[in-house]
Every structure is written in structure tokens, then in C-alpha cells.
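Recall the central idea of this unit: under ordinary conditions, the amino acid sequence of a chain determines the structure it adopts. In this exercise we apply that idea directly, starting from the sequence alone.
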Amino acid sequence: MKSSICLLVLFLVSAPAPVSADDAFAKWEKDIVAIEAKIQSGESPPGCILFVGSSSIRRWNLKEAFPALVTSNHGFGGSQMADSVHFFERIVAPVKPSVIVVYAGDNDISKKKTPGEVAADFAKFAAKVKEQVPDCRKVIYLSIKPSVKRWALADTIKATNELIRTDCEKDERLHFLDVWTPMLDANGQPRPELLVEDGLHMNADGYQIWNNALEPLLK
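Accordingly, the structure predicted from this sequence is:
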């Protein structure tokens, strides 16, 4: 009996402590502080077109893509939709953007989140926009893109895209932009020539497809 109790105590002492929600977001603090510095310096002026999301946003050369528009890039690589929701009050609300462009969900699916969970997180983000940035004219959600590296997740990605598309159709301020379809070849496969060597992130040709699709919605 005593040995059983000792083993139980040893297990409880050696077991890792559960990770709190705040701890899960703590790894982004350096990125968020850097974004806050951009806001404070005036690099993200009120009324700008704000880009938020993961590395596909962070790697986007917005000044080159949209030279005639006032844009600001608040992407942080590796992030999920829930991260942009969590840090909304620090990286979105203070800017009071006129338009918000969102790309997130790619990493979420890779980390085993379900389509419903990703769609629910986007709904939370959209609700925060409505509550805290009422003058924002539109929120544009870029669909999760196809990639060679994550092609095994294609069905889950498509299901996620469809859920978010349906949600966007219910609110005139929400716009779903399909970048999945133009990044497929004639056989419905991802186009490797649009991606860098890792088979996941886009090269200049991939971004050009996004630029062409998005620009009309930014006017």
C-alpha cells in the first residue's frame, strides 16, 4: 500500500504541469511587441488596410504589391487564427483599419484543429471587428491555399474553406476570397512552381496570384 502511495506521489510530482491558455500565447510576445512598436511609430496609421495572420502574410511585400495603397503588415509566422483573436486588442483594434485582410487556418489544420474549430475562431475575430472597429468597411478572408507539403490535408482544408465561405455570405462586411482554385493545375493538384523549396510558402509568382485576386476588393 505504502509503495503504491509513493508511486502515485512520484507520478504527480514528475508529471508536467498543464499549459495554461496564457502560456500557450506567450511565445508570440516578442512578435507582438514588435508590431506594437510599428503602431507607436506611425507605420500602421489609422484607417490603413491591415494585413493579419501567419507567415504567408508576414512574408508578403505589401508596398511592392500595392504601392498606391496605405497598407500595414501585422503578420507573425507560425500563428493560428486563435492567436490573432487573442492579440486583437494589441495588434488590430489600436489601428482602427478601414479594411482587414486575414490569412490564417493553414497552421491550425496542420496542428489537428477541425474545420469547425477554425471557422469558430474566425467568427470570434469577425465579432471583435464588429465590436471594436465598427468603422472597418470590410474583412477579407483569404482561403487556405493548396500546397505540396500539406496536400494530404486537402479535404480538411477544403471543408474549412467552405465553412468560412458560408459564414462570410451571412454578413455583408465579410468577404471570402478563393485563392485555392487559381493555385491548382488543370488536374486539380497544387502548382509547385508557385512555391519555394519547402513546398509550403509562396514565391513571387504565388503572391502575384494573390495580388491580382485581392486588389479589386481593396478599392
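The longest helix spans residues 115-132.
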